[in-house]
Amino acid sequence: MLDDMLDYIEGIRERPVWQNIPEQVRGKFRQNLPKQSNDLAQVHQRFMQDVLPYAVGNSHPRFMGWVQGGGTPVGMLAEMLAAGLNANLGGRDQMPIEVENQVTQWMRELFQFPSTASGLFVTGTSIANFIAVLVARTKALGLASRRTGIVNSEKNLVAYASVGAHACVSQAIDMAGIGIDALRLIPVNPDFSMDLQQLEQQIEADRAAGLSPFLIAGTAGTVDVGAIDDLDAIATLAQRHGLWFHIDGAYGALAMLSDVVAPRLKGIERADSIAFDFHKWAQVQYDAGYILVRDGQAHFDTFATPTSYLKRETRGIAAGERWPCDFGPDLSRGFRALKAWFTIQVYGVERLGRMIEHTCALAQRLQQRIRNEPKLELLAPVNLNIVCFRYRDSELDLDALNRDIVFELHESGIAAPSTTKVNGHLAIRAALVNHRTREEDIHEMLDAVLRFGEQLSQLPKS
Ligand SMILES: *Cc1c(COP(=O)(O)O)cnc(C)c1O
């Protein structure tokens, strides 16, 4: 099995990025519960035949869709060790929790947070954002609100993010019981960063209307175009208005690993909380989201629930005052920290930083070639590693055509960008995240875009 997976990773470049799943293969996974045991080798064979070839393809060098990391063999082996140990990191006295604490210490160092800051591995940034909203909510309403509930609060909380914020931010506000309408989506500047003048006007208008502004969620690397809000200015503004400053840095925050990109995140060190994913730019295997909170006590106060069943002792396995389960909704938790620890330890910050710079350089190269191709049009300036463009040399409806080009790219298995809307236009969106992507890959993708664009434009209109 180990050989098969190492071969798979080694040969990934020769495979199609993605393949349509044959109905007959899908059908094999509609069976009833197996009563008898099956031979492990046979089950493994089925995995190799029916599952492995039909994954999404984010390990592939020409996968450029959404924002997905490529994974590494190191992360894969760490996953195997973690699974062998089968550790449950909810609490208790064990070295696996010290590994998680070590990563937290590294993150405090990376983001220049104080030693009292707390951190926690979670599934992804969606949940990390949710945790941050809950901490900010409890801070704003007071600890008693954990008993009385938000419905009994006299405060009408309102929060702020840019229109470019990820949908999971409004979902977090929703799940926190605050209601999506209470998230003000602030317009953006031409560079797609939050318009801070409008932000401040909205805060003042909400205050004047008797509402209670409590949180600003800035974004470090928006998911559509990779824009970075002016984090330093937001920090100042949040301070002036006494608001919690959260940063959704799902993929962008770990650009702090690169000395070259880090200055563009100036102000991130002033946040109250940062949500990000190791499974994106840092290439750690899925899933590995993370929440870092400056005020560790506020984080603890939001989730800690004393129960006799989980009593802390002074000695033995149940020793320890604060357990990871005191910092989030999960009690049972896997050993996600190990693959992050292995990845950072084995590759080191400098190499990870260079890898991030490499993907940004590829995005610049792609932008340059798009500018030189008259048939292509750049739809947004390239901030970090995301390039939004379209094929424009056609009589056809360009939105439909560009969507069809992306379908063709996926179904041919050549490359996998995704799509988004930029200023009302459908864009082909290439996010260069994968450490395996080389310059030849972006040319192969663009050559195919030009080829499909021409072919589709020549078809008779249906
Ligand atoms: C990917 C992403 C998310 C969601 O993160 P998950 O790990 O998928 O939950 C949130 N915000 C931004 C900016 C993202 O890029």
From TrEMBL:
It comes from Undibacterium baiyunense. Keywords: Aminotransferase, Decarboxylase, Lyase, Pyridoxal phosphate, Transferase. This is Aspartate aminotransferase family protein. The modification N6-(pyridoxal phosphate)lysine is found at K280. It holds the Pfam family Pyridoxal_deC. Its cofactor is pyridoxal 5'-phosphate. Signal peptide: none annotated. Belongs to the group II decarboxylase family. GO terms for biological process: amino acid metabolic process; carboxylic acid metabolic process. InterPro entries: Aromatic_deC (IPR010977), PyrdxlP-dep_de-COase (IPR002129), PyrdxlP-dep_Trfase (IPR015424), PyrdxlP-dep_Trfase_major (IPR015421). GO terms for molecular function: carboxy-lyase activity; pyridoxal phosphate binding; transaminase activity.
